Structures are given as structure tokens and as C-alpha cells.
């Protein structure tokens, strides 16, 4: 016979293997504390990427200039209408609204609540997020109703040679 | 002497702080207050060694 089963089990002092197979339904005080420490570890690790992207943003601080991007021709967008586009990246949905002859506003259209796309309601004159009926003021992008608490990031636009260009994303004023 | 539930209480407080810091961190990130976001991430990371320390201390007390 081998003495494999004859050993005193080693003291399992670790944070991950805290389940005793023969006794897995039992959670004693120490086991519970281990789980809590493990949870703290998960929180610590999961906040690393946030710190990293925040540091990245901080290094390239200031008004970031993106290559100007043509949104649409002036002729193609009647007053009171909206057109969707992407700015600054390929996956950043944005919306351009023509309010009057030469007043254009553009916002990143991901709702600041849970990032549903925000639509322009021409008849009501407001921007609506259909997911939870969040509403935004079309002139400022500020939330006026529903769950969102943060204004939509505004995109500065420029009219040149009969076309509308997206220039940059405005930073929030602190 | 400390109560035998001191460790658990402390760890639960740490977990609560973790949740609060994480929530604040994400919000501050989207508000573009990146410095605050980094500070909160740092606090969140700092809580982990504290939690381990409390766990180790508790073990010594029991033995």
C-alpha cells in the first residue's frame, strides 16, 4: 500500500482554493473572510484598467485635435433634420442637428445613462433616448428628464465650402 | 481583546468602500476628472493589501 492517504493535509493558506470538497456546503468564519479578501482583490484588479485609461487621457490632455471629418453637405440636411455620423472613432456614434439656417449642433449620441443611441424628435424639439425615456436639451446637450445625469459630449462643427465638418469633441467644463 | 467578529466587520467595511470607490471612479472617469479617477483607482488597489493584512492578523489571533 502506498501512504498517499496517510498524510496530514497541508495547511491550505490561500485565497482561492477555499472550498473543502467533502464539506463544500459549510462556510465558516475564516472561509467567509477569505471570500471577502478575494472580493477585495477582484475590485483592486478591475480598477487597474480604469486607472490606466484615465492616466492615458491625462497624458494627452488639452483639446485633442482629430482629423476634420466631413459629415454631410449643407444641401442634404434641411432645417430641423438630423443626420447620424461617426466621430471621432469608427464606433463613436454621433448626431448632427440643423436647428436653423446656420446653426448646427452635434453630440455624441450614446446616452449618458446606459449608452443607448439618442434620437432627435423633430416634432417635440428634443433629443430622446428610447431605452429609459431620457431627454436632452438640444441646445446644450444637458439632460432634462429621465435617468441620465451627465450632458451629452458636444462636438464642434464647422461649415466650409457647403459641407459640415466635425472638428473636435468639447471637454466638460470643470 | 478584540471581538472575534472584528475581522469580518473590517473586511465588510473594506468591501463597502471598494464598491463606493469603484462607482465614484467610473463616474469621475466619464466626467473627465481623470485625476480623481486615478486617485480612486489607487485607493481601490490599496484596500486589497489592507484586507490581506486584516486576514493575516485574524489568523494570528485565533492560533
Strand arrangement in the largest pleated sheet of chain A = 1-10-9-4-3-2
Number of helices of chain A: 2
In the CATH hierarchy, what is the class of the domain at 69-169 in chain A? Answer: Mainly Beta
Structural class of chain B: mainly alpha
The gross shape of chain B turns out to be elongated
Q: What gyration radius of chain B follows from the Cα positions, in whole Å?
A: 15 Å
Span from first to last CA of chain A? 75 Å
Question: Which oligomeric state applies?
Answer: heterodimer
Overall, the morphology of chain A is: elongated
Would you tell me which CATH topology of the domain at 69-169 in chain A applies?
Answer: Rieske Iron-sulfur Protein
* Low-confidence runs of chain A: none
Estimate nothing, just give the exact number of structural domains of chain B. 1
Q: Approximately how much beta-strand content do the residues of chain B carry?
A: under 5%
**Helix content percent band of chain A:** 10-25%
Mean pLDDT of chain A comes to 83
Radius of gyration of chain A (Å): 27 Å
Biggest interface, chains and residues, is:
A-B, 30 and 36 residues
Chain-averaged pLDDT of chain B: 88
Could you describe the largest sheet of chain A, including whether it forms a barrel? 6 strands, antiparallel
